[in-house]
Amino acid sequence: MNRQLTRVAWVAMALIVALVIGTTYWQTWARPELAARQDNEIQRVAEFEVRRGLITAPTRVLARNRTEKRRGKTFYFRRYPQGKLAAHVVGYSTISRSRAGLEKSLNGTLTGTDRALSDLVEQQLDQSEGRRSSETR
Asked: Which of 32, 34, 82, 122 has the smallest set of CB atoms within 10 Å of its CB?
């Protein structure tokens, strides 16, 4: 009977060690790849709480925000006023299909998460002078 209990204890210990190793792997080394996956629904929904910038041509707005309030939160969905004009270049930004085109390649710039130093300096100067940025339209 002691031999059987010892075997069960070793198997249980091995399973606990495997569980600790597995969770450590997924939370540390695999985390960036998991967050970057396009089918990561939590990440995509959270990104729609961030106001995105405009995509413009010289005389036309090709993509802008449409706001919706749901359960006390404001979500910003994309609207394409020009329809199919330059759609292959502009791409799309939707919850169900993720992103493509400029919406994907310039995502960091459109959401304000990938800013150059000059952009930050301009933003601070605009705020100190009391001007509103054209991105807030």
From this structure: 32
Residue spans per domain, the chain: 2-36, 42-136
Are 51 and 44 in contact by the 8 Å Cβ rule? The answer is: no
Our CA angle for 64, 70, 72, nearest 5°, is 110
Of 66, 111, 62, 117, which is closest to residue 90 (Cα–Cα)?
A: 62
Q: Topology of 42-136 in CATH? A: Penicillin-binding protein 2a (Domain 2) (3.90.1310)
Identity of the residue numbered 49: E
The span from the CA of 75 to the CA of 73, in Å, is 6
- The pLDDT confidence band at residue 137, using thresholds 50, 70 and 90, is very low
**91, 104 contact by CB (below 8 A):** yes
DSSP the chain: -HHHHHHHHHHHHHHHHHHHHHHHHHHHTSHHHHHH-TT-HHHHHHHTTSPPPPEE-SS-EEEEEEEEEETTEEEEEEE-TTTTTTHHHH-EEETTTEEETHHHHTHHHHHTSS--HHHHHHHHHHHHHTPPPGGG-
